[in-house]
Amino acid sequence: MNRIIKTFAVIAAVLIVGIIVLNQQNQPQTVASNNPVTISSTESSLSEETSIINNEANDILFVDVKGAVVHPNVYQMKQGTRVKDAIKEAGGLRDDANPLSVNLAQKLLDEMVIYVQEEGAISSGSPIGTIETDKIFVNQATSEELQLLPGIGKAKAEAIIEYREQNGPFMSSEELMDVKGVGEKTVESFQDKIQIP
């Protein structure tokens, strides 16, 4: 009986010491400075986790894959992935798909629409496929395609392409006004004829 009591006493002592040690480790640590600040290890780890989550959220894109793919839908993709990755996510091309209707190597943009045409469909020249529209995709258009817009000649078309290559894709039609020679009235004249992104 004494042996059982001693065993319980030893176990209780070990538990008490363990609780004291854990409690001391979870106490806030004080950082020495002119203005003392208390930093909790829990707050610090939460801040790091929030930062990681925010960085991961910035790496996420949503793209709409339509047309001649196995599973047309909106897909969540990572930054830096390409059209071929989004089509693969959509189950791949159907047997009647025209692989030449899309630029498989193009990097994805948030809110991008990828339309894979069926074999024999007429193309409007857009590298990411068409959406049965005559709109010009400003972020993919060639100089010749941009010159189809009212008020855009060869010089302005080249300036738009140069701006796009230096600063990345346009995220709004208003951003076109940052291009030298393209003003508010010019953008208003073709706003309904363009697609961004």
Description:
- The protein is of the alpha/beta class and 197 residues long.
- The chain is built from six helices and seven strands.
- A three-stranded mixed β-sheet has the order 4-3-5.
- The longest helix is centred in the first third of the chain and has 24 residues, at 2-25.
- It is elongated and about 100 Å long.
- Residues 30-35, 51-55 and 124-132 have low confidence and may be disordered.
Short synopsis of the structure:
The protein is of the alpha/beta class and 197 residues long. The chain has 6 helices and 7 strands; from the N terminus they run αββαββαββαααβ.
Topology:
Elements: H1 2-25, E1 29-31, E2 37-39, H2 41-58, E3 60-67, E4 73-78, H3 83-89, E5 113-116, E6 136-137, H4 143-146, H5 154-167, H6 184-190, E7 194-195
Parallel strand pairs: 3-5, 6-7
Antiparallel strand pairs: 1-2, 3-4
Strand order of the largest sheet: 4-3-5
The rough form would be described as elongated
Beta-strand residue fraction: 5-15%
* End-to-end CA span: 81 Å
Q: Give the helices and strands as they follow along the chain.
A: HEEHEEHEEHHHE
Question: Can you give the helix content as a percent range?
Answer: 25-40%
- In round numbers, the mean pLDDT is 77
- Tell me about the biggest sheet? 3 strands, mixed
Q: Unreliable segments (pLDDT under 50, ≥5 consecutive)?
A: 30-35, 51-55, 124-132
Q: Please report the number of helical segments.
A: 6
Radius of gyration: 29 Å
